[in-house]
Amino acid sequence: MEMREQNEKMTTEHIHREVLQSREEIRSQGRYAQEKMVNGMIMEGDLKRITKYLETMENQKINRMSANSFRQQLYAIIVGIAIASRAALDGGLGEEEAFSLCDSYIQEADACNSPEQLLDIYKRAVLDFTKRVHENKSDVLMSEKTKNAIDYILRHLHYDISLKSIAENAGLSETYFSALFKKETGETVSEFIQKSRVKEAQSMIQYSEYSLMEIGQYLGFCSQSHFSKTFRKYTGMTPGQYRKKNFKRKW
Questions:
Q1: Residues with Cβ within 8 Å of residue 122, at least 6 apart in sequence
Q2: How far is residue 86 CA from its own chain's centroid?
Q3: What is the pTM of this model?
Q4: To 10 degrees, what angle do helices 12-28 and 69-90 make?
Q5: Helices (H) and strands (E) in the chain, counts
Q6: Is 223 strand, coil or helix?
Q7: At what angle do helices 115-136 and 95-110 cross, to 10 degrees?
Q8: Which of the residues 41, 52, 96, 219 could staple to 46 if both were Cys, CB 3.0 to 4.6 A apart?
Q9: Are residues 190 and 153 in contact, defined by beta-carbon separation less than 8 angstroms?
Q10: How far apart, in Å, do the first and last CA atoms of the chain sit?
């Protein structure tokens, strides 16, 4: 009985570690391509394709990743909802709206007691994010080069990424790629990287118990003062103030 209670009182840090492990298992089992495809549909606000995709999930079972299958299924759905919210942000959805939706769906998932309910919430969340992106989509269409560059950046936020490495991955010169990226996103590559790192930091500050120093180092900020200054630039508050206001010890 005591062991069961201990298992139920898992810390958010444990949950965050499980989330990271789940992401690695997705990659190792070849499901990352599917995740990337869904991200693309959300970013584009492609309602037609996302609706067809969700219909194929009607009888799909959520993958079991440990003996404690339901808890692992919950982690997988939380990961999926968080990823969908970031894809929606990259598709032009406002931060407050995206974060609010993400919190709402995660809380709803946390109250579920069956795999079927979890899958239903995930499908509703993905469709909701896609609809909102579709409604807010601007007339400017991104090229495949820019979309791929954004995906590359988001997958390497905790690495030392540079304009040179991103341009090389896109197969373009630094000068041409820099101009293309600015034209299609309205931001420089450096600004986009900083903003994306701050978004990731917000999530880690809110849902994990890692120290602010650990989060700053993990996301490649050269110092704690640089992390704090950049975070404040995009959120209006320091990392410490943000944690005090938004930290969720239990989901």
A1: 77, 80, 81, 109
A2: 4
A3: 0.49
A4: 80
A5: 14, 0
A6: coil
A7: 170
A8: 41
A9: no
A10: 23
